[in-house]
Amino acid sequence: MLSYILYGFIWCFTLLPLRFLYLFSDFLYLVLYYIVKYRRRVVRTNLCKSFPEKDGREIVKIEKKYYRHMCDLFVEMYRMWHMSEKEIKKRCVFKNLEVVQQYFDQNRSVIGVLGHYGNWEWMSSFSLWVKPDIAFYALYKPLHDRVSDRMLKKIRSRFGAVVIPKDDILRQIIKDKKEGRLFLAGFIGDQTPNIYNLNFWMDFLNQDTPVLIGTEKIARKFDLPVISLRMRCVKRGYYEVDFVDICGKPGELEPGELTRMHTRVLEETIREVPELWLWSHKRWKHRRGKEAEETN
């Protein structure tokens, strides 16, 4: 029952224009940062270890900007529920589409790697920028609460994205290959592997980091080109997405190289404007050679 009440409240509340929702975001920032202190220790530790060259004042500055961005992200995501196509295309602009279009013209589907950076939820509006017969797959991990899961699926699919549980993507790719359907599949490349997938490690943001290699495995198996989606915030509530061509022939690379390539692109993006990444995530809870923590 509580989930349905929350569902209805969020739906009604986000009918407000963003300029009013940002007032709530400003208030939420004060509560989360100064009163609740939500995961401040995690954020501070992550920032200090990632940027040892920065002094305490610089770290705190990034930290505060991150919490402001996180609160903006919250209201922006749910506001998407009521946005028109005209508004979302104005607020989230996809640039240099020729990078991905070249592969569609070759009748090849594409894997797009992105991170929890900027407003990654608005990237699900990609379908508005290409022909209607090209699918955009937004991979996700289903939530245990069915009401919340349904709510997020509705928001993410509002502008044509096909929301697919990450465990079902292989079946979908095989089906599309047989039917000749083109797609761009969005893979999140910065999630922490579970304890059974600590197979590949590399230096990332100054730390020894386990990285998921599922994207690379799928790209090599189906010969899918890989691009990176880089988002930047132009101003509050306005973003631009650039495509970076990572590799058109993944099978020709050495194992692990493709993963290093797209992770490096993400790292460069984070270093340019660090406050837009998800610093409250326990990204480095695993240590090589030590028993990993199972709690998040």
Description:
There is one protein chain. This protein is α/β, with parallel strands linked by helices and 296 residues long. The protein has one domain. The chain is built from 10 helices and 9 strands. Helix 2 (18-36) crosses helix 4 (56-79) and helix 3 crosses helix 4 (56-79). The longest helix is centred in the first third of the chain and has 24 residues, at 56-79.
The helix/strand order is: HHHHHEHEEHEHEEEHEEH
Rounded radius of gyration (Å): 19 Å
What is the count of β-strands? 9
Helix content: 40-55%
The residue ranges in which pLDDT falls below 50 over 5 or more consecutive positions are 291-296
What is the makeup of the main sheet?
7 strands, mixed
The portion of residues forming beta strands comes to 15-25%
Q: Structural class, please? A: alpha/beta
Tell me the distance between the termini. Answer: 27 Å
Q: Record the strand order, biggest sheet.
A: 1-9-8-2-5-3-4
Q: Which geometry do the CA atoms define?
A: globular
Mean pLDDT reading: 94
Instruction: Kindly give the count of domains.
Output: 1
Helical segment tally?
Answer: 10
Features:
alpha/beta, 7-stranded mixed beta sheet, 9 strands, 10 helices, disordered C terminus, two-stranded antiparallel sheet, 296 residues, globular
How would you summarize this macromolecular structure in one to three sentences?
This protein has 10 helices and 9 strands.
Topology:
Elements (H helix, E strand, L loop, with lengths): L1 H12 L4 H19 L3 H11 L5 H24 L5 H7 E3 L3 H8 L4 E5 L20 E6 L5 H11 L5 E4 L3 H11 L3 E6 L12 E4 L2 E4 L3 H9 L3 E10 L2 E10 L9 H16 L24
Parallel strand pairs: 1-9, 2-5, 2-8, 3-4, 3-5
Antiparallel strand pairs: 6-7, 8-9
Helix pairs in contact: 2-4, 3-4
